[in-house]
């Protein structure tokens, strides 16, 4: 299944080769597009244990810059390489506690009263995109299909729990610092659909809940992304 999803993300822009391009040999006709991005998305937890369910609104925000590198003289095919920042929150019924330096996990039972429990990451992003658009130097409204990979270095990983009696927050070393996944950004003009499918686990391999079950999670993000310049 993961291989099929990967082929889908990475091969979509290649379909656009079949479309006729403007005939020009003038390299100066190329131009740069979409070099600043802003995005908001909803975070889903995939491949999770059956007892895990999400609560509240698991949001994410991203912002960054991309270097647009045209591959053709008319600029319709390009590569994008960039650097950005993202914050992501994942609200669920996973209760995380830390006692004497030991982190423990359990799935909240119906009689466990709490307001919010979440993982939160602050990340540096390294997006790599293969880009197709039907734009021209003078056409500012156009269709785009950008697919590729995004690497995330989580420089801050937190677990937070809020109950009626108070709240706790601590750095969670069980969350993988280096994560990566497939991206697909598709749209027209201002509004573009953003998809991210993680290829790496959110938690480290040896992370288990109090029942001994492995805590395997893979983020899936769905939202909007906006490009400038």
Summarize the structure.
With 229 residues, the protein is mostly beta strands. It has 1 helix and 11 strands, in the order H-E-E-E-E-E-E-E-E-E-E-E. Strand 9 and strand 10 form a beta hairpin.
Q: Mind explaining what this structure looks like?
A:
The chain is mainly beta and about 230 residues long. The protein has one helix spanning about 1-10, and strands at about 35-45, 60-70, 75-90, 95-100, 100-105, 115-135, 145-165, 165-170, 180-190, 190-200, 220-229. The model is unreliable at about 15-30 (pLDDT under 50).
Main attributes?
eight-stranded antiparallel barrel, two-stranded antiparallel sheet, 229 residues, mainly beta
Largest sheet: 8 strands, antiparallel, barrel
The count of DSSP E runs of length 2 or more, i.e. the number of strands, is 11
Q: If you compute it from the alpha carbons, what radius of gyration comes out, rounded to the nearest whole angstrom?
A: 21 Å
- Strand content is over 45%
Helix content: under 10%
* Average residue-wise pLDDT: 87
The best one-word shape is elongated
In whole angstroms, how far apart are the ends? 36 Å
Strand order of the largest sheet: 1-2-3-6-7-9-10-11
Q: Which structural class do you get from the secondary structure elements?
A: mainly beta
Uncertain segments are 15-28
Encode the helix/strand succession as letters: HEEEEEEEEEEE
Number of helical stretches of at least 4 residues: 1
């Amino acid at each position: 299944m993961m291989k099929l999803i990967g082929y889908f993300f990475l091969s979509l822009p290649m379909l656009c080769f079949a479309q006729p391009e403007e005939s020009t040999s003038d390299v100066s006709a190329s131009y740069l597009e979409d070099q600043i991005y802003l995005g908001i998305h909803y975070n889903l937890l995939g491949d999770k244990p059956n007892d895990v369910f999400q609560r509240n609104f698991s949001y994410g925000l991203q912002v960054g810059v991309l270097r647009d590198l045209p591959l053709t003289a008319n600029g319709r095919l390009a590569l994008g390489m960039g650097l950005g920042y993202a914050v992501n929150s994942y609200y669920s019924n996973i209760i995380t506690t830390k006692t004497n330096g030991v982190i423990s996990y359990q799935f909240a039972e119906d009689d466990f009263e709490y307001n919010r429990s979440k993982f939160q990451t602050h990340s540096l992003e390294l997006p790599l995109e293969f880009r197709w658009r039907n734009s021209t130097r003078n056409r500012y409204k156009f269709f785009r299909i950008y697919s590729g990979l995004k690497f995330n270095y989580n420089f801050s990983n937190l677990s937070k729990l809020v109950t009626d009696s108070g709240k706790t927050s601590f750095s969670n070393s069980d969350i993988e610092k280096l994560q990566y996944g497939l991206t697909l950004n598709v749209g027209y003009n201002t509004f573009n659909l953003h998809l991210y499918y993680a290829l790496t686990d959110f938690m480290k391999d040896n992370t288990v809940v109090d029942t001994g079950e492995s805590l395997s999670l893979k983020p899936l993000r769905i939202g909007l992304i906006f490009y400038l310049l």
